[in-house]
Amino acid sequence: MRQIICLRAVSSYLTFTMRSHTYLDSLGAASIMAQILDGKKLAKEIKDELKIAIHQWVQGGLRAPSLRCIIVGEDPASHTYVKNKIQAAIDVGIAAETIKYNANLTEKELIAAIDALNKDSEVDGILVQLPLPSVMDERKVCNAVAPEKDVDGFHIINVGQLALDMPTLVPATALAVIEMLKRFKIETFGRNAVVVGRSKNVGMPIAMMLHSDKSHSSGLGMDATVTICHRYTPKKELDSYCRNADIVISATGVPNLIQANMVKPGATVIDVGITRITNEQGKTKLVGDVDYDEVSKIAGAITPVPGGVGPMTVAMLMRNTFQAAKMLRDKESLLQ
Questions:
Q1: What are phi and psi of 222, to 5 degrees?
Q2: Is residue 31 very low, low, confident or very high in pLDDT (cuts 50, 70, 90)?
């Protein structure tokens, strides 16, 4: 009888979300079984939705959305990423092409090539694969892409509109995180969220959307209370902030930065980091910022690496391209 009363007391302190992923072991202790936020499966669902929408678009007499991916140099990882993006585009019905340049292309020549695509009415989306050769100014190059064709969401106009809660093209990885929170029905209203990492293309836009007012015209606001941590946040403070968070999102590229003792039971953990490491046997594998094996025993929901945010980033890039095509179509209609 005493054990039953204790179990009821434990259950009364668990939130609804925590109870949905909690079991009681043989000794009566509450244990969390994390919900795996399968980004690969969700990305397929979104791409299937896009495929239908784009088919209807074309059936209505409009040309297929078009995407141009620019890559400079021979970085193998960058070429793999672009190849995956092109294939995803083709799969959903987007007319996509890769434009390759060797590493001795000048910044001036690259900007001239981007300008030609900006003026091409048959091109809806332009993507410049990063990183660029070190002699180039990435910010200058990103700002050379017309804002309405900037499917990466890196142009200062798009970043500014995001900061003002205005409809805009949003960086795909940040948008992937927000879409996962929405699709998996993770409650954010009034919750404490910690974003670890302050990069301008990932951490910053994630934090902006998490704290923004949902009632604003962008429709991206999540109404959370947000703390941003970074490389100069003392370890003790980082641990404390994370332990108090209902949602932890890490985007640093530091393997196993987020440990189980830093996570509140039942919290949602989104791992954006991705690093290729080599073990003692010389084999390589991809890992995230989160100690997945241990944190998954504590968290209420968690993303895997690989198979989490990565596939969703590509899906959001496809959605941005279709959005760019629709915006350009609306602009043309107004001018007619």
A1: -120, -5
A2: low
